Structures are given as structure tokens and as C-alpha cells.
Amino acid sequence: MKKVLSILIAVSMLLVIVSGCSGEKPDSTAGNVSDLYEQVMARFDGKLEKGAVVKVLENDTAVELGYVDQLIAAFNEAFQDKGISAERMNIDQYSDLATDGPYGYGPDVWYQANDILMKYADNQHLLPLPVYSMECYEQIPESAWNAYATDMNGETFYCGIPLNVQSGMLYYIESMLPANWKTEWDVNSNGKPDFFETYTALYAYSEACKKGGQTTKYGYLDETVDTYFMSGYLMTYGGYIFGDNGTNASDIGLAAGESYKGARMIQQWAGQMNNTEILDNTFSSAAYQYLADGVMLCTVTTPDVSRMFIRSMVSTGKWTEEEAKADLKMITVPRLPVSADLTADKWQDTVMNMDTLTVETTMMGGINGYGISSYTKCPNASLAFVEFATSYEQAVLRNEYLGVAPARADAAAKIAEKDATVGILFDRLDRGYISIMPAITEIGQLWTPAESFLIDLSTDPYRAERGEERMYETDAEIQMGLERLVTQIRDAIETLS
Predict the structure, then answer these.
(1) Which domains does the chain have, with CATH numbers?
(2) Most buried one in 1, 295, 393, 467, CB count within 10 A?
(3) Distance CA 285, CA 267 (A)
């Protein structure tokens, strides 16, 4: 079965290559290379700037786990006879190209999420790249390229090279499953724990943990004030951030459809967890050790931090690194009940009738990749570094170090032979269950009001013991709260403009 699964995933990856690549390549022989395209690409003439040292700003986790130093060393060795080199910038992973770039303090090459990088593309702080001539072009699906697309006078250009697919995944440690899960928590007898199939079953198991006698203190524990992950629950029931696939900031859809159901689910979880740490945005950094110490059975976060969980497991002295890698599992998030009622007594019904009583959960996602600063003095050397860093070999190696899912279909197919998670992410992206973070400037106005709403929503279950009234007692009140949130975001965008 494992061999069959590997073959099927590999074939699906090849289908992505054939059917998913973006647009038509400009072809001078066909006469469809515009003057604008030639003008924009003029900086990339292929002549490496002798003596150039490419300043690279990378992901903090990738630095901490040693991947970036390996990447820099490998690049420098490969290009030592070309007279160029790269060095890692010794600052954290965030930058402000608009402020730092003109004075030469910013990076030449920057690895970041598409929504962070592309907000600089609007004001031309990032260079449009000659992606059609790059080796990786045919290997990356259109949905990933679109995360870095920008319009210039009616023509589409790309200001980043996709490297990794990000989305929420559920982590757990297999040895911490309850001993009786096959008899008590597998009502459909499919060999999968019920609490990893529907959120209603996970809620029921979390209630059992609260009563004691289970392998962990909590079942599911998560940061319910994190907009990135929590917005996915709104999207599952018809909400969205911006219209027209995230490009139309005048159409804010967080209150659309039945998104109030997703908000109600967040509120229910906050009350069930009964832990004020989930109201603090520092919980994510504590989650690694919480899982390793058996404080919780599972949590949801992105694939790129899997090595952080492994490191915490090893630090307890209970696992070797190889044992930790084998014991840590990462799977797709459970399905949500159509009713959005997690407290249902007959949680078994959602497992036995998943097609009718539950829906597949949509999660916010992103495409991490590389951009090149418009202020670089070595565009060709910078492009050489990006091509090296996005090669098949480096995409596979980055996965080995960090556990991330590559955006390259050939690398994903190779990794999927041993790690089905990569295939799952590609499948969910292809079927529309990963909503890519909008990559326009206006996305910056989402975070503060959305977090404030989530804090109020998640604090509601604790108000009674403080002698306070709940803010969101009914679905109608939650809907009004979402509509106020939309108004706040719209007002912030209009003020910005």
C-alpha cells in the first residue's frame, strides 16, 4: 500500500507539472515579448558582478537549525571560481525594504512569506524576475506562482520565486495516543483515531482529558487569538479575506456566508481549553515543549516547524532524534461539523456520517519564497543565488532539515515517497482547501482588528467568573462582531490610502 501511495502521489505531482504551470512564456521567436518585458528584465543580463557578496536574509528557524549556513557554504563553494559569494545577514527574519533598502542596509535576497514580500512589490521595492528562463519555472504550479504575481500596465510579472507551501497541519506524538483508542475511539473501524477525523470527536476526547485518566492533560490546545490559523475556520463556512482571489481589498468577506459558525467554534474551543495561555500570542513558542512533555495530545501549526517539535522531544531524554522523527506525526486538520456545534453529545454521528454531517476544513496558507531587492547592486549574482537555493537538490535538502513541503513538483514527488504529508499539502492546495494569504499592501490592516476580535471572542467563556457579561452570547451577536471587524479593516484601509 505504501508503494502504491507513493506512485499515486508521484503521478499527481507530474500532473501538476503538466497542467498547473502559469501562463505563456514570452517567446521572441513568436513575437510576444513586449517592450515593457524587455525593459523590466534589462537588469538581468547574465553578467555576474565580480566580487559581489550577496546579502541573504533568511528564516529564523532555518538559521537556528543549521540549514542556512549549509546553503551559504554550498553556494560559495559552487561559485568560488565565478568571483561571487553570499553571506547571511545576522538580523532577525524581518526587514523593511522601503526604509532600509535605499540606504543599503537591507538584504539583496530575502526569504519570506508571499504576503510579506509582495507588499513591497506594489511600490517597486522588489524586482520583477525573469522566471520564464529559470530552471524551476516548469516545476512550480500556477497557484504558487500566482502568490507572487503583480500587474504592470496590464502585463503579469513575478516578484518572487516560490519555495515552500505553508498551511496549518495537526501535530501529535503517536506514543501518546490513549491505549484504548482502537476500541473506544474508532467507531467507524477504519484504523484512524476518531478525534483526528472530526473536530467534534476531538472536542469529546479533550473533555475526557479534562476529567483525567488520559495520557495527556489536554487533548487539543492551541492559540485561539492567532488570525492566521483561526481565519481558516471562518473560511470553511464561507468567509474570505479579500475578493477576487485576494486582490480586491474593497471586498472584505470575513462576515460573508455563515462565517459566524467558524467564530462560534473558536469560542467553544476557548472555553473547553480553559487555559488563559491560549489568549497569549506567545503560546506558539511554548507548544513544542508542551507536546513533548505530554501536556497536550495535539496542536495545529505549519510544516516548517516540525524540527522544533523533534528538538523538544529529544531534550526530554525520552527519545533519540531518530525515535522522535518516527514518533512525531503531522496530518491534515480534522473536518468541521456542518452545524458548528462541537459540544454535540452524539459526536460518534459526525464520524459515522462524515460526508453529510461534516465539511472539510479550509486553512489559511502561504507560499514562502525568495525575492530580490530593487536596491541591490548585484542583481545577477542575487539571481544566481536564488536559482541555486530553489534548485531540486536544495528543495529536497531544505525538507530534510526543516520538514517543509517544497513548491517544486519534482522535489515534492521525491519527498512524498517517504513523507505523505507533502502529497497531502499539494492535494489540499489543488482542491482549494488552502486559501493563500492575500499578497497586497492592504493585508497589513487585517491583523490588529482581527486579533482584537479574536481576543474578545476567546475571552467570553471567562467573563462570567469575573462577573462580566458575555459580548457574543448569540450567533446574531457574533455576526454583528464580524461586521464591525469588516468595518474596522475597511476604515483602516481607507485611512492608509
Answers:
(1) 2-159+366-430 (3.40.190.10), 167-362 (3.40.190.10)
(2) 295
(3) 22
Cell, residue 343? 459540544
pLDDT digits (tens, 9 = 90+) for 324-350: 999 999 999 999 999 999 998 899 999
Q: At 146, give phi and psi (nearest 5°).
A: -60, -25
Q: What is the DSSP string of 71-98?
A: HHHHHHHHTGGGT-EEEE-SS-S---HH
For 176, counting Cβ atoms within 10 Å of its Cβ (0-12 exposed, 13-18 middle, 19+ buried), the class is: middle
Contact 391/397 with Cβ under 8 angstroms? no
Q: What is the dihedral of CA 25, 29, 32, 33, to 10 degrees?
A: 80
Cα-based torsion angle of the residue sequence 91, 92, 93, 96 in order, rounded to the nearest 10 degrees = -70
Nearest to 454 by CA among 280, 298, 333: 280
Question: Residue 25, CB half-sphere, CA atoms under 13 Å: how many?
Answer: 11
Please write the tens of the pLDDT for every residue from 18-61: 344 445 666 544 455 688 888 889 999 999 999 999 999 999 88
Phi, psi of 122 (to 5 degrees): -55, -35
pTM: 0.81
